[in-house]
């Protein structure tokens, strides 16, 4: 996971003309939920890497698809082999920029929108993700809920199980950032 953070830092810094304070986490959490009348499916990944540059408002998130945990191993196997093709497309990535001007020295909770690119299953789509950014004594957290349409990322669902998997997946992410200290 350390290589994920290094890659995120590089991608945020390379696109920045100025360097600000970097905040990072390697323990972000992303949960997805597929609800249908026949079956509900959920997966949780608690090893999500994320970085925030408070000078440029750039944010980047990267997660290994195989790090999602499921209620049973069969769901996990189907997710990685049949739908996400995790061997071929091992990571999900969001790179963007928070649109609002935030004073990171002031405590508070702010409604934010990150405008950027979401890459899943090898397909990149422009996305505007809305969330809440909380600053509490130089600790920064970010929470975001959004939907992913399977068709937008060319994730195919076999007709045999089409009624068991939603066409739109609900995603919840949360990150507790700490100042990044290069080791």
> Which second-level CATH architecture of the domain at 2-93 and 145-179 applies?
Beta Barrel
Mean of pLDDT: 87
Helix-and-strand structural type: mainly beta
Shape: elongated
- N- and C-termini, Cα separation: 14 Å
Strand tally: 8
Please write the CATH class name of the domain at 2-93 and 145-179. Answer: Mainly Beta
Oligomer: single chain
Major β-sheet annotation: 8 strands, antiparallel, barrel
Helix content: 10-25%
Strand content: over 45%
One letter per element, helices H and strands E, the order comes to HEEEHEEEEE
Q: Helix tally?
A: 2
Q: Order of strands side by side in the largest beta sheet?
A: 1-2-3-4-5-6-7-8
Rg over alpha carbons: 17 Å
Uncertain runs are 12-19
CATH superfamily of the domain at 2-93 and 145-179: Lipid/polyisoprenoid-binding, YceI-like
Keyword list:
183 residues; mainly beta; Lipocalin; 13% helix
Characterization of this structure:
- By secondary structure, the protein is mainly beta.
- It has a domain at 2-93 and 145-179: Lipid/polyisoprenoid-binding, YceI-like (Lipocalin), CATH 2.40.128.110.
- 13% of the residues lie in helices and 51% in strands.
- It contains two helices and eight strands, in the order αβββαβββββ.
- It has helices spanning 2-14, 73-83; strands at residues 22-35, 40-53, 58-64, 91-98, 108-120, 123-136, 139-149, 168-179.
- An eight-stranded antiparallel β-barrel has the order 1-2-3-4-5-6-7-8.
- The longest helix has 13 residues, at 2-14.
- The two termini are 14 Å apart.
- Mean pLDDT is 87; it is low at 12-19.
